[in-house]
TrEMBL record:
SUPFAM superfamilies: EGF/Laminin, Growth factor receptor domain. This is EGF-like domain-containing protein. GO terms for cellular component: extracellular region. SMART domains: EGF (SM00181), EGF_CA (SM00179). PROSITE patterns: ASX_HYDROXYL (PS00010), EGF_2 (PS01186), EGF_3 (PS50026).
Length: 229
């Protein structure tokens, strides 16, 4: 129906006519079209033992910071012992030697949240790549290692590709260095390419990376191994 039948939320078709319906937590206003939030805190404080907070379409109970919300979502309780609601702990609850609440603990692979009650999974891959050589995936709190050879797919390396922990890097042949893009290889300038290697006449690059100067016929190399006389 055009314009949703004028209904703010839902328009329900019936035989020959229609009516408006609101989402849960809202009620239809007297005009039969608009919906307004039901104040869940208006009746009996929403059943909350302490603070009731009305929200659009719902409401929730809040507790002062030194109390915790019972699993019923209504009652605030002071934690005195693990025997009550597991001390409000998600996983393990520890009493002290007098049988009074001491602290919550989480099973391995989980850590205690800021509220000191609930436990949240630790991503095992954040710690030393989960011990994986290559890719680590968080499988419900356990590290799952995957071998992915990034070098086997197109990686953009100009010369070589080296597969390393969790990723890869490009490498270049001897005499070349990796460009700033981490992919291309640039020839390393040196030897005879820079200022003729300091030679007055001829310069010869050597396989060991060095270079030597030689003089043209009729000249001999000076003691500095560069000038000719
Ligand atoms: Ca409400």
């Amino acid at each position: 129906m055009a314009n949703n039948g004028g209904c703010e939320h839902e328009c329900v078709n019936t035989i020959g006519t229609f009516y408006c319906r609101c989402w849960p937590g809202f009620e239809l206003a007297g005009d039969g079209n608009t919906c307004s939030d039901i104040d869940g805190c208006a009746t009996a404080n929403g059943g909350c033992s302490d603070r009731c907070v009305n929200t659009p379409g719902g409401f929730r109970c809040d507790c002062p910071s030194d109390l915790y919300l019972h699993s019923d979502g209504r009652t605030c309780g002071k934690v005195t012992s693990c025997s009550v609601d597991n001390g409000g702990c998600d996983h393990e609850c520890e009493d002290d030697s007098h049988g009074e609440f001491y602290r919550c603990r989480c099973r391995s692979g989980f850590k205690l949240s800021e509220n000191k009650r609930s436990c949240q999974a630790i991503d095992p891959c954040l710690d030393n790549n989960g011990g994986c050589q290559h890719h680590c995936t968080n499988n419900h709190g356990r590290a799952q290692c995957q071998y992915i050879d990034e070098c086997s797919k197109n990686n953009g390396c100009e010369h070589f590709c080296e597969n390393i922990k969790g990723t890869y890097r490009c490498k270049c042949r001897e005499g070349y260095q990796l460009g700033r893009d981490g992919r291309t290889c640039e020839e390393m300038l040196g030897g005879c390419q820079v200022g003729n290697g300091g030679c007055q006449h001829d310069c010869y690059d050597q396989p060991d990376g060095g270079h030597i100067c030689k003089c043209r016929l009729g000249y001999i190399l000076a003691a500095d191994q560069m000038l000719c006389h």
